[in-house]
Specification:
The protein is mainly α. The chain is 66% helix and 2% strand. The protein has one domain (29-402): Na+/H+ antiporter like fold, CATH 1.20.1530.
Length: 415
């Protein structure tokens, strides 16, 4: 295979990695705020002010006029509307990677796609085996997704101990995971469908497609049309946050006339707000689990145990197994600098489900119910365990393990 010759310190070469570096910086600080908000939620929900915590998120808020009024609790506005911007960002990230990133060719996309598929199917199967068709069975989608903010945040803490190829692999894997989780939400976690409202959403989506085909490059116009799509999906029974993904996929992602792509412009504009405000607010509203008087036996309940087994065991088994099988069959190869030990660490970090897992848990179970609490306890426990074990695994990987011959993931030869 012909290799690109370059000066490793040349500005042109470094420019290739600046978008990834900027993304990682956002995700690192965002993951810190996410942890802070989660801890605050747990402390608040288990303090003397816990009634205030519950009451705050149950506060009803009405938006609209007369028959066009929508009345929801503050919690639902956060989960249904604010998180639509999180899904918008996810949609743009997926499209960017498909157009000009780690997924822009079949050969580059194959490894993270296969790894993500293994990392989704195995956790879901293990959860289903633990739930055994009982009341917890509807939560099978909870352990399928990886929290990209936490996972890349942990990798960033390791600095030069991990190769850049591992960042790219885990980021692409988590993005595909998110796409899979979005499909699962749209297909399996939506209520009775109103085809009239869904048709309206499709019509407005065609407007966005026409914008793209006609060369409209003002991202604000795409977001503006996204509002009636959100309203139509809200009325249709499909979860309204999917509107964000639709808008993200329709925004032009290619450069023209020497100007930045509209997708890149909007992504850079909203990334800080999503990472520093929307996602921490979501965690503050959803991570508060009342543990006062709870027994450790709660972790053995099907919903909690299924999530823990799915994330801590199922994720690494699926990711590592699918990846090594693909490499063994010579379908693809490991990224440059990535060894099997790095792969094990990445598979473990894939078990940090948190944001998307909490989101799916809120769809699968009744808010505030005992089984919903069990699922959230499982998510918090599993994400902490997976993150710690993954960090320790990569932290104890010798620095020379990143030196790989031929970019195929072989162990380094003796000098």
């Amino acid at each position: 295979m012909t290799r690109l010759r370059h000066d490793p310190l040349s500005p042109r070469f470094l420019d290739l990695f600046r978008p990834l570096a900027s993304f990682i910086r956002h995700e690192t600080f965002g993951s810190f705020l996410l942890i802070l908000a989660s801890v605050a939620a747990l402390v608040w929900a288990n303090s003397a002010a816990r009634d205030g915590y519950v009451g705050l998120w149950e506060t009803p808020i009405a938006v609209g006029i007369g028959p066009w009024e929508i009345r929801e609790s503050l919690l639902h506005w956060i989960n249904d509307l604010a998180m639509a911007f999180f899904f918008l960002l996810v949609g743009m990230e997926i499209k960017r990677e498909l157009v000009s990133g780690e997924l822009d060719t079949p050969s580059k996309a194959l490894l993270p796609v296969l790894a993500a598929m293994g990392g989704m199917l195995v956790p879901a199967a293990l959860y289903a085996a633990v739930a055994r068709g009982g009341e917890a069975a509807s939560g099978w989608g909870i352990p399928m997704a990886t929290d990209i903010a936490f996972a890349l945040g942990v990798l960033r803490l390791l600095g030069k101990r991990v190769p850049i190829g591992l960042f790219a692999f885990l980021a692409a894997l988590a993005i595909i995971d998110d796409l899979g989780a979005i499909l699962v939400i749209a297909i399996f976690y939506s209520s009775t469908i109103s085809w009239t409202a869904l048709g309206a959403a499709a019509a407005f989506t065609l407007v966005l497609v026409a914008f793209n085909a006609g060369g409209v490059r003002r991202p604000g116009l795409y977001v503006l049309v996204g509002l009636p799509i959100w309203l139509a999906l809200f009325a249709s029974g499909i979860h309204a946050t999917i509107a964000g993904v639709i808008v993200g996929f329709c925004i032009p992602a290619r450069f023209a006339g020497g100007q930045d792509a509209p997708l890149q412009t909007l992504e850079h504009a909203i990334n800080p707000y999503v990472s520093y405000l929307v996602v921490p607010l979501f965690a503050l509203a959803n991570a508060g689990v009342t543990l006062v008087g709870a027994s450790p036996a709660l972790l053995l309940e099907p919903a909690a145990l299924g999530v823990i087994v799915g994330l801590v065991a199922g994720k690494p088994i699926g990711i590592i197994g699918a990846t090594l099988l693909a490499v063994r069959l010579r379908i693809t190869q490991l990224p440059t600098g990535v060894t099997r030990r790095h792969l094990v660490g990445a598979g473990l970090l894939g078990g940090i489900g948190f944001t998307m897992s909490l989101f799916v848990a809120g769809l699968g179970f009744q808010e505030g119910s005992l089984i919903h609490t069990e699922a959230k306890v499982g998510i918090l426990t599993a994400s902490i365990v997976a993150g710690v074990i993954g960090f320790v695994t990569l932290r104890t990987t010798k620095s020379q393990d990143a030196i790989v011959e031929g970019g195929r993931g072989e162990e380094p030869r003796a000098a």
